[in-house]
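Before relying on records like the one below, remember that each one covers exactly one chain. Contacts with other chains, cofactors or solvent are not represented anywhere in the record.
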Amino acid sequence: MLTRIVKCDLHAVRDMQSLNETHQLIRKLTRPIGEIAALLQENIHLAEQHKNKVLTKANDITPNRIPQKVAEVVLLEYPRTICTSKKFSKVVKVNDEMKVDYIVQCHRHCYLQGVEQEVINNPILKHCRAIDKITGICKRCQCEWNNHIHVTYEFKKHLTYREITNERSSNSSQNIFSRIDRRIAQLKQEQEIIRHICAKLTLFLRANSINPTNEDIIEYINHFIREEKEKQNAGDNNEQIIIGLQNLIKEYQDEINLFKSNVDNQANT
């Protein structure tokens, strides 16, 4: 680390403060970005499922209405520190949808100063009142500090239906398939945009931080993969969602490597 510091150019303290603020802001975006990416993957899965049902002429669907999930952000009355350990989570069914519920709120009214909200594995959480300062173990759940997260909102998802035809358009199977494919392509394009932005933000942090930057977005996607696997173990048919999220991580890492390669090539020319 000292070697890296010696090699760094001098810059004004106010610039460092600005970089730190930018760093914190980008890290705060990790959770909502991860949640949106996971929501897009769920909607891709729902659209593909719907297409297969239309193909097989299932009786329990309306062909021109695609099931899709929409999200609602519900602010908590107080910020809180919760445990995300698997042993303190359970899969519950709400409105015919499985979700992972974290049942232990280790510090219900947590006003820890300087903590980056909605960030997994944040070292400042070691100073939360619920965490033993010497051992790093939570006094409430007995888990390590890095299983905890400081949250300020809930991300609630609701199932809705998206009309893909109107009075002017044809209800033929070919037209419906075309519109379903268009919806899937739109969702994948949104995923690609998010992945591209995340890669740029990550590279910015790497280029402008003294300490190596944690791959926060990957941590969050892995967190969602763990949740999906818990739901799968409880009987949810979500294998394609898990595969899609795993592919999302791979594509994100590939894009990071491509950006780095381009930057290195430009530096050497």
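The chain has a mean pLDDT of 84.
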